[in-house]
Design a protein that fits this description.
Length: 151
């Protein structure tokens, strides 16, 4: 059994233990590709899977607008109320941090294991919800930058 297979199995198990269906499913999918000798699709997935996933994520967020469940008046409220402005600022900060997290994970993919373990601890002991590696990566990137700044 190759080291890559062991890592994917470990990630899948950690995802299951941490109740992170996304990590577990992604690892299982890659294992399926490995076991069916379809690794030739890895380069395509590496280039396009994140983009495809983000498209589906944005589609799911936009469905309330498309279905008419969010009225134009509600949208305008987000620009003139304090909670709305806080939400806009939070979105800006979160997307920037997610970008930093993605860059960190691309440079240091081995950090994924630590983030999954951290997610498991967060879910098991702190009532957290495992939402994905980008936010954890964003926070890790912030902490790495902070540590470098403090040196």
């Amino acid at each position: 059994m190759s080291a890559a297979t062991v890592i994917l199995i470990l990630l899948m198990l950690l995802g299951i233990l941490g109740r992170s269906n996304v990590i577990a499913a992604a690892a299982a999918f890659l294992l399926l590709l490995q076991f069916t000798s379809l690794q030739r699709f890895y380069p395509i997935l590496e280039r396009r899977a994140l983009e495809a996933g983000l498209i589906f994520l944005v589609v799911s967020v936009l469905v309330p607008f498309a279905s008419g469940r969010v009225a134009p008046r509600d949208m305008l409220q987000s620009f003139v109320s304090l909670p709305g402005l806080i939400a806009i600022a939070s979105g800006i900060i979160a997307t920037h941090m997610n970008c930093q997290g993605l860059e960190l994970l691309q440079r240091f993919p081995q950090m994924m294991i630590g983030m999954v373990i951290g997610s498991i601890i967060g879910v098991a002991f702190f009532g957290g919800i495992p939402v994905g590696p980008l936010m954890a990566g964003g926070i890790a990137a912030l902490l790495v930058h902070l540590m470098a700044w403090l040196r």
